[in-house]
Amino acid sequence: MNYFELFQLESVFDIDTETLKSNYQKLQRLTHPDKFANASDAQKRIVMQKNAQINDAFHVLSSPILRAEHLLTLRNFQLADANASMSDNEFLMTQMELRESMAVADGRHDLEQILNSIKDEQSAIVKTISENLVQEQDAGNQRAALALTKLKFFTKIRTEVEEKLLHT
Amino acid sequence: MALLQISEPGQTSAPHQRKIGVGIDLGTTNSLISSVRSGVCETLPNASGQFLLPSVVQYKKNETIVGEAAKQNASDDPVNTIVSVKRFVGRNVDDVTAQWQHLPYKFGHKTGSPIFVTEQGQVNPIQVSAEILKTLKQTAVDTLGDELTGAVITVPAYFDDAQRQGTKDAAQLAGLHVLRLINEPTAAALAYGLDKQKDGLFVVFDLGGGTFDVSILRLAKGVFEVLSTAGDTSLGGDDFDHAVVTHMIDKHNLQSYEKTHYRLMMDVCKQLKEKLTEREETEIPLSIDGRLFELSLSRSEFNVLIEPILQNALTICKRAIHDAKITLEDIDDIVLVGGSTRVPAVRQAVSTYFGKKPLTDIDPDKVVSIGAGIQADILVGNKPDDDMLLLDVLPLSLGIETMGGLVEKIIPRNTTIPVSRAQEFTTFKDGQTGMLIHVTQGERELVSDCRSLAKFTLTDIPPMAAGAAHIRVTFQVDADGLLHVNAMEKSTEKQANIEVKPSYGLSETEILEMLQSSMEHAQDDMQTRMLREQQVEADRVLESMEAALAMDGDELLSENERIEIEENLHKLAVLKTENDVDAIKRQIETVDHISQEFASRRMDKSIKLALSGQSISDI
Predict the structure, then answer these.
(1) Which of B160, B161, B169, B206 is catalytic?
(2) What interface predicted TM-score (ipTM) does this complex get?
């Protein structure tokens, strides 16, 4: 299933999020189970499946990570292979430094600073992904997949920092 | 010359047939029923003019009493009078007794699904809840003078799958057609949002006797979207009472009476608390074994006592705001629900934290049922042009047990429902034909810290080498927040059989048996009711299929496909007039089966039309 097509969007990484949102609402009004409260059971089943698919598609297209993965899958790119070959020393250093600064972080101010630097990293990586996915070519896909692995790491650590902030 | 009949714009000339939808707040302490009359949603009073039906059922030898009268008898006949049955729905008896000690009931067994042993015999929580629902249903039928089309029933946002299923089973047993289960905070927001027709971000702060729920919703152009929900199932007004009791025990050296007279002390302290809503200071005498203690409390002392509890509630609010990805400043309005929000300190804490005065113009006791009534009116189809849409979320993450008793999350909390996620599993041994999947609900990492929902046993997996079979298990949560699971072996596309063993509540067979035995006592028997249900369903199928054929039959079906559908519809129309329940049921299934492809094509067509900017009124 091509989720971009479901929302009648072009299959590209840089989608128009406003169109995505407004098309999501149109599809919701059309397929939400509440609109079929008096339909036959079979119809309800079909509607629920379609509506769940639309929710899932919206979830995927709204997230840069999932959207990039979806696009790469549509391009028949093997994501698993890219994940295995992670040997970027500079990035490994960044990871260790971040973990260290998290461990010694003292109070909200420190954590907020870490959070901001993570956000900056994330935007930079999303930009790299976007540039490399403009055209469908193997080298670009490779670079995007590598950047995705980094983005996942930062997303994971961001959740941890936010969780810490919530309890500080 | 005949006169032409001209109807008003927007109305049909056919007599306006209004369907009746009701909203039910099935509460722990009190229950209410509401319905839209002449465009306004109102709570319906019973014969003696009462809006609140105490959720109390007394099982006397030859009589079942529900509501106020049962509540009056509760202290004289505690064993046979079930109060706060909601705490038992979808839970095990040992969970409940661990949380609330000194319950006066006689239980059929000490573990597993609760069974109350009463003078009238054994009853389970579903049956007790059904008695309350039946009473409310009767109130509605008496007031509205007609049969009910369907009901929307509210549940706490934090209710898990078993508790939701239990509520739905009780409604079925009471003979109600459940249109939808909706979350209590969502219903409250509906009552305010649709009342004021105002877009914005709402926080619903629902503090009841025993539970706390907070939900954040966005209303924009008729779409009501739940952004996040959080809560604590054991935080509520009861904790305020406990805090006061503990304080009084210390102050008056009542330690020696703690075990024997705790219930009495709780009652007195509850009264103290309630009096402080209106006054700055209050006192009540407490008499134990002939000794008299003068308990006095000022509002400022009370506020200090409950401060830690309020802090807990506000921490949960913080979590909900974080999950909704918004900030405090984005919030436009705060809605208060639940009796404990009458406490001035609660209102003060909420105002201070959110920096805004909360909305209180709808009675906090009625607001949930009114919201449910509004939604029921829309769902029965009384407002076909209404654009309102309600998007709710899964309150607790769904996961499965993996190696070492760990939970792997399949669907995270706050995901918009309905939702469907697939997960692939493989076999561990050569020729393995079965598999056990344990589904849990909750946020923690260990299975033992989460709620066990059900165990699914997959059988009939085609025998293959270890790791060769790929079983795709699809977890689907419907708009009521209920879980459905199906499984398929990928290479052979063979559907695996699933046997569900719910960890709580009752199995489908048990529900059916209960339904059957309840019918034996009722006037209309099971057979009549089932026939009637199948006929109604047949009508629904015929009506919607004929409309679909008229609209899209030419465009989306080949000649042969169309003939096949039409022949089967004709067959169904004939069978409907006869009395064979099974034959009607089978024919409906046949029609369903052969028209599935048509339904999918129509859905795809309408999606294309909608997104290309053309409006389509109906599909």
Answers:
(1) B206
(2) 0.87
